[in-house]
Specification:
CATH topology of the largest domain: Adenine-n6-DNA-methyltransferase TaqI, Chain A, domain 2
Helix content: 25-40%
Strand content: 15-25%
Distance between the termini: 16 Å
Strand order of the largest sheet: 2-9-6-7
Number of domains: 3
CATH architecture of the largest domain: Alpha-Beta Complex
CATH superfamily of the largest domain: DNA methylase specificity domains
Number of helices: 8
Length: 408
């Protein structure tokens, strides 16, 4: 037997206590990137109440926060608001709020929302355009959930707290192992780059470059372009040596694409500007996967005379070069951090003969091969653990497994 969730909880209820706070008081604020389950929920941010009084989502301590937009909903980033200073907070509009009644346990309801049927049905109910689809609040009100009295709910929630806690600990350990692999990979690259500098004379980067191009900034839509449509790259498309073609904004049909800025496979791209210093000066070689992509004004295209673009990208990813780029970063009048063309031209790089660059890249790839294999294995294990966690939650809330302390 099932009932609709609206009989157990309110969806997006009013929070009148928020209006009782003084306008200049600081309240906890949750952007979407701060909403993660478990101990990863970041409640450290604060904003004046007057700044978030209009156009934001309000919540209380103990409310269930559900990201409504793709792909965060499918990733099951639903979390219970806890540790909220003052008990009242505000968050992004990309959150739904579920506030359970006295006849329900919030941990149990949170697990209901993380079960596979709820996630699958929620994804199927999404509305909007590709890349910006959202789960409507009516889906949660009408969601049918198993009937259980309060003691059963708490028994199931306690069991899942313990079991998913063990799984989450395994997931955390594997994520930490991936972080250590990242550090090892960076160290391997740094040693390799230092070896290149020791083997060959170095000179300003301009000796290697034919020219540097900067893209354009047309008015774009917030959604990514689909196959066959034109998209303008976001700075996040260039990420620590990896090119992410899906990170783009769709060019409206009424805007004529400028073919001068078309990104092609093999282009060496470097981020010119961002709101974060860590994002400035990142390098990657483009692999468009058949997409029609355009260079934005916050990304440079570096055109070498004859050097291998992958070789130059590896040099630019080293701590040696990243540190020099960071020292050159300046803030413009629009509060954007940028690196200038002339600063890039003056970066020191090894004058490695083109015939030696391929051999050097093969050497680097051989050094990295083992870490790449281990990384693939860890990501596969993370996938299996996530699937096991979801299957366990689904079986528990549907009464498919025996719960200790709960009569059959």
């Amino acid at each position: 037997m099932t009932i609709r969730l609206r009989h157990l909880a309110e969806v997006n209820p009013a929070t009148p206590e928020f209006d009782w706070l003084p306008p200049d008081s600081l309240v906890p604020f949750l952007p979407l990137e701060a909403v993660w389950p478990g101990g990863m929920l970041d409640v450290s941010r604060r904003r004046p109440r007057s700044e978030v009084a209009v156009g934001y989502t309000r919540f209380r301590e103990g409310d269930i926060l559900i990201p409504k937009i793709t792909p965060t909903f499918q990733a099951d980033r639903t979390v219970i608001a806890c540790g909220i200073e003052g008990g009242i907070g505000a968050g992004t509009t990309e959150l739904h709020i579920v506030r359970v009644s006295n006849c329900a346990d919030s941990h149990y309801v949170r697990y209901l929302l993380s079960s596979k049927p709820a996630l699958d049905e929620g994804e199927a109910s999404m509305i909007g355009v590709a890349g910006q689809k959202r789960v409507p609040d009516n889906f949660f009100r009408d969601l049918r959930v198993p009937v259980a009295d309060l003691s059963q709910q708490r028994a199931i929630a306690d069991y899942l707290d313990a079991e998913t806690g063990r799984i989450d600990a395994l997931i955390a350990k594997r994520r930490r192992m991936i972080e250590l692999l990242d550090e090892r990979e960076q160290a391997i690259r740094d040693i390799w780059v230092n070896d290149q500098f020791s083997r060959w004379d170095s000179a300003a980067f301009r000796r290697q470059l034919s020219h540097i191009e900067q893209g354009w900034s047309p008015q774009c839509e917030a959604v990514p372009a689909e196959q066959g449509e034109w998209g303008v790259l976001k700075t996040s498309a260039v990420s620590k040596g990896v090119f992410l073609p899906d990170e783009n904004k769709r060019l409206p049909e009424y805007v004529e694409p400028d073919e001068r800025w078309r990104v092609r496979d093999g282009d060496l791209l470097v981020t010119r500007g961002s709101g974060s210093a860590d994002m400035v000066g990142r390098a990657a070689v483009a692999c468009t996967e058949g997409r029609k992509l355009l260079l934005s004004d916050l990304i440079y295209r570096l055109v070498p005379y004859s050097s291998d673009t992958e070789y130059l990208a590896e040099i630019l990813q080293s701590r040696r070069l990243r540190g020099l780029i960071r020292a050159c970063i300046r803030m413009d009048s629009g509060q954007t951090l940028k690196v200038r063309v002339n600063d890039l031209r003056e970066l020191p790089v090894p004058l490695t003969p083109s015939t030696e660059q391929t051999r050097a890249l093969v050497e680097l790839h051989l050094r990295l091969a083992r870490t790449l294999r281990v990384r693939e294995m860890l990501h596969y294990q993370l996938q299996l653990l996530a699937e096991h966690r979801r299957a366990l939650i689904t079986a528990a809330v549907n009464g498919e497994i025996e719960i200790p302390g709960l009569a059959a």
